């Protein structure tokens, strides 16, 4: 089968022909229809993820994907061949940028009929990060104002919609065609971060969702009201600086929420959230998808399609 692999960190991932995976007793074999790229995949390839995950090389990256179960392991009772599923694997296992993957049965949830495989694949890390950073970590409530940085990206496009549906006022930062996209998804105010200074335009917000880090994060403390919160997915905030502004600040990690994926997929459908797809790229043209991810300019999610389904 075809699969993207790296044999050493910092190697450019490339498509290879490798043997079909063997299916362990607690696993299912998924014929992959679509896989979503995440910045985490770039961290796996650079070696940066090795401090958080047990990674054995060579590895096929790709944690978020969707497809059809074609074989079940001897101990698996809750799935059968023909079931269509969304899969969220640990970054140490990956496997999504391929035609087939053997994954733990526990890593699968049903792909509802209302979602395409591409939409399903887009959900695990990006939507989970948006939802659980806003609500489980930051406790965003109706009537509050949230500033979302990088609102046109994979996490941001979900975050705008979840926050609006929860009754919050949303201020977004974006640039280029990301500005129109953020507004279309419901942002009440969109700041062009390339020509406008958000610190001059925004005051007393209740929450900042920082999807950028660095200078953007540091300067965000200035726009929070006293008692406000900053949640970052990009870089651990300096809590002593937060204290000096009278606000709280924390880093968010998506992994602990994997078991709640099914609930989140239902929320996407029930709340009629638009799954924004930047582009769909055939597995054999993986280099194009990778270039787009590493450019840092995606609008929503970049999707890899197995050529069987093109
Ligand atoms: N901790 C976790 O569990 C977790 C989970 C998911 C993601 N993350 C992290 O969260 C961040 C966002 O993830 P993602 O998947 O949404 O990334 P993404 O889709 O690659 O984000 C791309 C978007 O970022 C925007 N952007 C870049 N710099 C910006 C800036 N200074 N101000 C405003 N927008 C900016 C780009 O807009 P332009 O093209 O206009 O520049 C683009 O639309 C990444 O750092 C990722 O590693 C962490």
Q: Could you characterize the architecture of this molecule?
A:
The protein is an alpha/beta fold. The chain contains ten helices and 15 strands. The chain folds into two domains: 2-123 and 275-309, Quinone Oxidoreductase, Chain A, domain 1, CATH 3.90.180; 125-251, Quinone Oxidoreductase, Chain A, domain 1. The protein has helices at residues 39-46, 117-122, 124-137, 154-165, 177-184, 198-201, 214-220, 239-245, 261-270, 286-295, and strands spanning 2-5, 14-17, 27-36, 64-72, 84-88, 100-104, 108-110, 145-148, 169-174, 189-192, 205-210, 224-232, 248-251, 277-282, 301-305. Strands 3, 4, 5, 6, 7, 14 and 15 form a seven-stranded mixed β-sheet that branches. A hairpin with an 8-residue loop joins strand 1 (2-5) and strand 2 (14-17). Helix 3 (124-137) packs across helix 4. It binds NADP nicotinamide-adenine-dinucleotide phosphate (NAP). NADP nicotinamide-adenine-dinucleotide phosphate binds next to helix 3, helix 4 and strand 9.
Label this structure with key terms:
Quinone Oxidoreductase, Chain A, domain 1; 10 helices; 15 strands; binds NADP nicotinamide-adenine-dinucleotide phosphate; alpha/beta; 310 residues; six-stranded parallel β-sheet; 28% helix; single chain; globular
Summarize the structure.
The protein is an alpha/beta fold and 310 residues long.
């Amino acid at each position: 089968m075809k699969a993207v692999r790296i044999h050493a960190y910092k190697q450019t991932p490339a498509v290879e022909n490798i043997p079909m995976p063997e299916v362990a007793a607690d696993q299912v074999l998924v014929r992959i229809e679509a896989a979503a790229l995440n910045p985490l995949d770039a961290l796996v390839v650079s070696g940066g993820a090795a401090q958080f995950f047990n990674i054995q090389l060579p590895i096929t990256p790709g944690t978020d994907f969707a497809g059809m179960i074609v074989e079940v392991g001897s101990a698996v009772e809750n799935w059968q061949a023909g079931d269509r599923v969304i899969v969220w694997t640990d970054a140490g296992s990956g496997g999504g940028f391929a035609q087939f993957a053997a994954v733990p049965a526990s890593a699968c949830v049903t792909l509802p009929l209302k979602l395409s495989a591409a939409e399903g694949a887009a959900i695990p890390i990006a939507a989970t990060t948006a939802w659980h950073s806003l609500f489980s970590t930051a406790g965003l409530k109706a009537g509050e104002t949230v500033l979302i940085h990088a609102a046109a990206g994979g996490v941001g496009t979900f975050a705008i919609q979840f926050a609006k549906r929860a009754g919050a006022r949303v201020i977004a930062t974006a640039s280029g065609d990301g500005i129109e996209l953020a507004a279309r998804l419901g942002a009440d105010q969109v700041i062009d971060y390339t020509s406008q200074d958000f610190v001059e335009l925004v005051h007393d917000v209740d929450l900042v969702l920082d999807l950028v880090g660095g200078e953007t994060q540091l300067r965000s403390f200035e726009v929070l009201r006293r008692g406000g919160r900053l949640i970052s997915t990009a870089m651990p905030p300096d809590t002593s600086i937060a204290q000096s502004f009278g606000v709280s600040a924390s880093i968010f990690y998506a992994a602990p929420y994997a078991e709640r994926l099914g609930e989140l997929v239902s929320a996407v459908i029930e709340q009629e959230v638009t799954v924004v797809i930047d582009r769909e790229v055939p597995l054999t043209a993986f280099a194009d998808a990778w270039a787009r991810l590493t450019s840092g300019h995606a609008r929503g999610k970049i999707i890899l399609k197995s050529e069987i389904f093109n």
